[in-house]
Amino acid sequence: MSYTVNVYGREVICASCVNAPSSEETYDWLKVLFKKKYPEADISVNYIDIDHDENFSDYDEELIEQINNNELFYPLVTINDEVIQDGYVQLKPLTKWFEKNGVQ
């Protein structure tokens, strides 16, 4: 099975996440981390710039609207279109999701 990790973010750091890594830093960290932690798994990590990218899916538009309405924070991480974390992203919830779904 393949897994798609999307990191939604902006160039500007979230006001509620001042001491947290930026969205792009979170994307870079996850890209390297998943390759090392799950080398056999088919995991693609994508960065979605919510201010500059185009051709958003309806699901992307829905998440971006929630971010713009302060219902969700960025960086926002989804795995296979399931919201896992927003704001200050930490490793444990992400690895728990993969382990729960049989990725070793």
From TrEMBL:
Residue ranges crossing the lipid bilayer per the database entry: none
Source species taxonomy: Bacteria, Bacillati, Bacillota, Bacilli, Bacillales
InterPro entries the record matches: DUF1462, Thioredoxin-like_sf, YuzD-like_sp
Protein name per its UniProtKB record: Disulfide oxidoreductase YuzD
